[in-house]
Amino acid sequence: MNESWMNEVSARLASLAAANPARDFEKNARGLLSSAFARLDLVTREEFDVQSQVLARAREKLAALEARVAELEATAAGRVK
């Protein structure tokens, strides 16, 4: 993670703690952390799992296509001789 970003979050949390009661601090800290995580461009576990499945299918198709190309190349090489 970016160290300056962590320093910014730490400084903001410290200033919030000094200026607000505990309940306000918790609310503000949650808001601050939520916005910080939003900037990190994270995905949900569900989105990750879906993309993993898509990638697995793409790899299977690629392997099948590579095998087919190799088969066609072998057939073409046999004809050239």
From TrEMBL:
<dbReference type="GO" id="GO:0005737">
    <property type="term" value="C:cytoplasm"/>
</dbReference>
<keyword id="KW-0963">Cytoplasm</keyword>
<dbReference type="GO" id="GO:0006744">
    <property type="term" value="P:ubiquinone biosynthetic process"/>
</dbReference>
<dbReference type="Pfam" id="PF04380">
    <property type="entry name" value="BMFP"/>
</dbReference>
<comment type="pathway">
    <text>Cofactor biosynthesis; ubiquinone biosynthesis.</text>
</comment>
<protein>
    <recommendedName>
        <fullName>Ubiquinone biosynthesis accessory factor UbiK</fullName>
    </recommendedName>
</protein>
<dbReference type="InterPro" id="IPR007475">
    <property type="entry name" value="UbiK"/>
</dbReference>
<keyword id="KW-0831">Ubiquinone biosynthesis</keyword>
<comment type="function">
    <text>Required for efficient ubiquinone (coenzyme Q) biosynthesis. UbiK is probably an accessory factor of Ubi enzymes and facilitates ubiquinone biosynthesis by acting as an assembly factor, a targeting factor, or both.</text>
</comment>
<comment type="similarity">
    <text>Belongs to the UbiK family.</text>
</comment>
<feature type="coiled-coil region">
    <location>
        <begin position="48"/>
        <end position="75"/>
    </location>
</feature>
<keyword id="KW-0830">Ubiquinone</keyword>
<keyword id="KW-0175">Coiled coil</keyword>
